[in-house]
Batch of 3 targets.
Target 1
Amino acid sequence: MRERPRATALGGAVVVLGVLAVVLEVAFDSIEAGKPRPEEVQTGTFTTDFFVDDSLLGYGPAHNYRATSMKTIDGVTAYDVVYTVDGEGRRVTPAPAAPAPDGPILLFFGCSNTFGEGVQDWETLPSCVAALAPRATVYNYGFCGYGPQQVLDMIKNGRLDDVVRDRDVIAIYLFIDAHVARAVGSMVVTTTWGVDMPHYVLDGSNELKRRGSFRTGRSCQNWAYALLSRYRTFTAFGRDLPPLRDSHFALTARILEEAAGELRARARSSSFHVALHPHVRTRDRFLPHFEGSEVRILDYVGLYGANDEEYMIPGDWHPTPLAYRTIGPRSCATWNWPAVNLPPNAEDPRHEEVRRQL
């Protein structure tokens, strides 16, 4: 020990740090176990066989399916709804009338906020827009947990060709802050639901490249994330890896720009919009990456308050029907579409109520 004081000191420091790590882990584990948490219960077919594997996108909704979903928090019902998915994997968007044959095609993309988790088929954002724009054919391609890479792969791999070829198309991607972490495959994403999602990177030439999925494209990084995610000392502070940098926002923007380009190559005419959810906090970090891009920004930040319970499902951060009815008219105003009161579709008379509230 006297002959190797540095090695001895280093070994002692390692032992002390190891003991400290164990003590902290036990302490945080006890603290987390003692925290009161609301009892959340989600039931219905949405939580069982509604999610299916998808070799391209990682996963998606079962096709031609009606799923029930009921969520209660401390015994109080937050929502009790039905999700209807058509044969192409899109959530059904009821229309107030048959769309015009020469009318535009509206494509909505995004995550559960676009899909409409916690609301009925006729209460989603795409349905609210359909109620205001009866000439348009509106499709909802959003799904729970999706990021920008699913949008790109849907278009790039021809899944939408039958819909968009030689048509006038408007695409709307509803962005939330979490989509950046999904684009880069953060620790939270890849250790929970998203390990099979498409994995894109910007290479040394600043070109966008797909490297399989997060599972197949970076096994060592996934192993490290899986190890760290097990430690309360790290997760107790709500930490995620990697810390988001400018390059991650650049990657997210580039994926969406590429999607816009792929759509333009297929449609007769097209416009691609990124709509910022009213609760987005990273606007100033995200928007500079679209300078000079063909992507148009629909800025809804602050449209309603982040703590306004009328716009969030009780005990859940997903939007309420009122939130969608607030965003919908502003989307239509982008294209100078006035609200049109038509007789309701006989199959879904509830559209009359939607239009009345809009």
Target 2
Amino acid sequence: MSAATAFRAEGVLVLAALALGIYGIDRSLWMDEAWVANSVLAPTLSGMFYYPDWLQTSPPLFLLLTRSAVHLFGVSNVSFRLVPLALALVGIAGMIEVSRRLLSAPFAATACALLAFHSTAIEYSRTCKQYSGELAASTLILLATLLYLQEPVRRRFWWVVGAFVVLLPLAWSAAFLLPGVAIGVLARGGTRRAVSLLMVSGAVLAILGLVFIRPNLSPQLRVYWTAHAQHLSAGLLAAVLFCVAAAVRALFLISRRPNSRALIQLVAALPCLLLAAADLLHWYPAEPRTRLFALPCFLLIVAMNAEDLVGLAFSLPSRGFINAAVWVTAIALGCGSVWTQIRQHQNRPQEDFEGAVQWLRQRVGPSDLLLVHPSVIEGFKLYARMEAWRDSHAIFGNTAWPCCARDKISTPGSSTVRAVSEDIDRMVPRGFSGRVWLLYSARHTHWVYVGNDEGILWRNRLWDRGCPPTGPYVVLQNIAISAMDCVRAR
């Protein structure tokens, strides 16, 4: 395969990832994105890093980059997602550079296609969260490490150190790569360099932990992770066992000849195993989005072992057919991903806060009451600001908060009928006459977590007080709006 052909194939892959990321980039932000966006819009950096309403789980460099993009391009759905999209493209470019140095063209293309067309990678390339940054950080650290392992000179060693110094503030998950990289540096550069890497990176982690992580931790966050922990499926168990086998094979190859290929396989396998261990111990959740950083590592070791297996099992003439099949697989992955995105309407919002706020603004009268449930507060605040709706007179509820608001109870089963009734009585005074608008989540998983569907409890309580539902009931993609009319609320 010529260099020009390889360049064109890589360019097509990056452009395809860009197109998939743009598809749906202007859709309404959902709850998790909305509180990140609101923190980015905070008047001060302190208000952004220590957002007063919610625990700030996004890394500082991601927040600074997003804040810069919003200041440069203005407040919009797209501007909040430009940085995640750019980081996703950086991650794919980094994966291309690593793969082309380790694998033959067909296997490199397939590994990169599996990353670029992975549904979770696509979703978080257009989501205002830090996970595409974690993917980018992993590929850049792998690239810097591979370059050093191939030529362990001082200059390239400091590239590795610099990568961790810059990327840890962008992606907390970069810490999972540190033990494997340190082992690789130890094998190729000696004890002094490995210790230097650990000391510098450890100092950066300690500073980040004290300044940014510790003030944004809460016991409720771990409770939430534990409650949402996913059981190890057969597929994930097989992936973990494969990583164990790959690590053992890498150690065997290193004992015979510690070359860069064997070392990078160990470097890539260890983060996957550490993530699995952290998840089992409930230290770090291994959800699809939180394990996105490990995806490049996993795909690399799969591709390297598959290529080695092909080399052992097939004669040279037969490998041409295998390579052709691999190319066809890469192309099929791209076509299938595009079709899936269109068929599943991935350009539609997960929660249509934008549509809900626009709908309410056109109908809520100056004497009406607008009650906003905690499950939708951040989205309402964001789009009321973006719509310049300053006279909404919204009253915010105070029960069944999502995880993880500061100083609010958001544990499983925290919702009670009594607390909901008292909260409604607080928001709607006795003797009120007029229309009451209710805005709340229609996301079933939230109500299952808190223990009660408070949308139903809100409506029932108002009905009991003489405010029946005589107005419209509207559901806009996981957001519900109810109108109740009071003659004289009891």
Target 3
Amino acid sequence: MLYPFVFEPILKERIWGGRRLAALYDKPLPADVPVGESWEISDRPGDVTVISNGPLCGQTLRWLMEHHGAELLGATPPADGGRFPLLCKILDARDRLSLQVHPPATMAAALRGEPKTEMWYIADAEPGAELFVGLRAGTTRAEFEAKVRSGEVAQCFHRIAVAPGDTMFLPSGRVHAIGAGLVIFEIQQNSDTTYRVFDWNRTDRDGQPRELHLEQSLASIDFADVEPALVSSPWVARDRFESRALVRHELFSVDLLRTRRAATLALGGGPMRVVACVDGELTLSGGELTVTLHAGQFALVPASLPATALDVAASATSLLVQGGA
């Protein structure tokens, strides 16, 4: 029988990254390298996470999908190539990311890319931190293209001040960028296609400007997507905990759970789930194995488990992700 899986994260050097993943979540960052991403659950070609707990320790998520895909996913469909459908990350944006877009499903194949719908949960934010999401009201395609040529395209982006606990949903086709001073939990489609519109005139370590993808970007952007808002769903009080529905989409659903005292949540059988500990400590019990999650750790709960208990000994916040069907 399968059990809740924890994986060794894959750390990614990024020009805009920092060192906060070590300070906040004790990630083992390499010395003197700006780390921008910790891939917690990944089944990407060349970037597959390795199981770090239980009898299958040392096997990979790719191996799990090849040998136990139906048990793992249940009714959730896999990504192309039979891969795990989601990519789960923590991002540390010391600097601004590029202004960018991911291709929508209707355009991705023609552009030789993959669609990418995602959500951001703000785990930490410096004062004044902001997101660039969608277009400002009144922005036309002609104006956008003119601002791209003049290097002023950031003026066309809608900017939103954010604080810890805020959430933004980003369907494919929505232009966006993460601002400086943010740590974000990201749940996304299994995709790594990004088209850069503008990169703040930065250069890489060799002094060269990073590649832009203007033709692909203009083909992907939803120019009717104007001034989107942060998720504003209400808190719902339940027995010993409260929850908010953050995302309801065919690809995945996400709920935020918050407890102030000891509590147990029975997950039961059903769709594949991912549990991410934002702060505090959680314990998952299922398949005759118990795993404890600390802040910044993720666990994958297979659909085939008949019952899984999520126990919280004290105050904690977590994301509960459910695969689409």
